[in-house]
Each structure stands twice: as C-alpha cells, then as structure tokens.
Amino acid sequence: MPKAGRSAGQVDTVKQNILDKALKLMFNDGFDALSMRKLANQLGMTAANIYNYYTSKDELYLAIQIQGFRILAEKLKAISTLPHSTEIKMRSYMWAYIHFGIENPDYYEIMFCRNTPKYSDYQNTSMEPSAALQRQTAIDVADIPIQTIMENNSPAQVTSIDEARYITIVIWSTLHGILSLYTSRVLQGLSDNTDQFMGRLIDDLIKHFIETDEKTSS
Description:
single chain; 218 residues; mainly alpha; 0% strand
C-alpha cells in the first residue's frame, strides 16, 4: 500500500502521474517495451514504490484505457443530454470524436491503433475484472450514438439495434480513417483546409445516414 500519511488526494496525484508517464512511454515505445523499471527511472521512483500503486504493467495499461474511454464517453454524454435533433447530436458526436483524437493523440493511439491486449486475453486471470471494466467503458462510447440513432423521431427511424450498430460502426470507421490520415500528416498534404475537408466528410455522413431517412419519410 502507499506510504502511510498520504491523503487520498496525494495518492490520486501520484497515481495519475504514474499513469501519465506510462501513457507517454507506451505511446513512444509500445506496450511490450514498457517495464516497471523503465517507468520508475522516468519518474525518479523505485520500481518497488510503483508496485505500491499498480501491481503490474497490465493494470497500468487497463487503467489508461479506462481513463481514455471515460474521457471520450463524458464528451459524448454531455452532447446526448442536450435538447437537439438527431442530426445535430450526430454531427456534434463526430466533431467531438475528431477533436478527442487530435487533442489526445497518445490516448487515441493506445485505445484504437495499437495491437494491444484485449478483454479475451485477460479472461481467467487476476486482471479479468479490470479488463471487463475497460471493455464496458469502450462499449459505453459506442452505445451513446447507437441510442441516439434509435431515438430518431422520424417515421423512417431505425428500429433495429443491429442496424443502428452498423451505422455507428460505419461512421466510426470513417472518422478513424480520416484521423489516421490527419495524425500521419497525409491529409495536410492533400488538403489546404483540413477542418473544411472533415466538415464536408461529416456533412456527407449526415446526409447518407440521417437526412436520407427524413426525406424518405416525407
């Protein structure tokens, strides 16, 4: 356990500092290259001290994933509670996702781009409860737009959860693709105005998946 005498706030600060440094190391060197000893050297701590806060690099990795998905989920949840139309909410979700990826490239890379351990890799291990929580936080992100699509008030609204999930995955895949082009700076070489380009992409997704339903119903 952490040293006696530390307040809960102090413990949380140390844990967050460890997570932040682990995230940077994982982003730069990859999950396999991360070790408690390397992390301790970066933090000016002993490896034994880090073990007072996190039992393994797997626990660190899962904590990073959980935190990243929670940050993204909170952004989407804030939009979902607003009294806006399905079109406005979906447009806002897409921009929030893009901004998250641009503003948090380290989280985004670990969450969506790297071939890192998944829930199935932790089944029947001591890390399974943490892995299950990580999996649920990721599902929560997808469930927000899925629910919004299901709540579309047009007569031609999507009534199948499978169809709503399909639409969400198609949109998600498209946004992930454009973010990959942006973070690799390929998009900047092809477009003089990346915001305008991404705005047009979002407009096209809205027209295909949202306005099409509304026009069909009129």
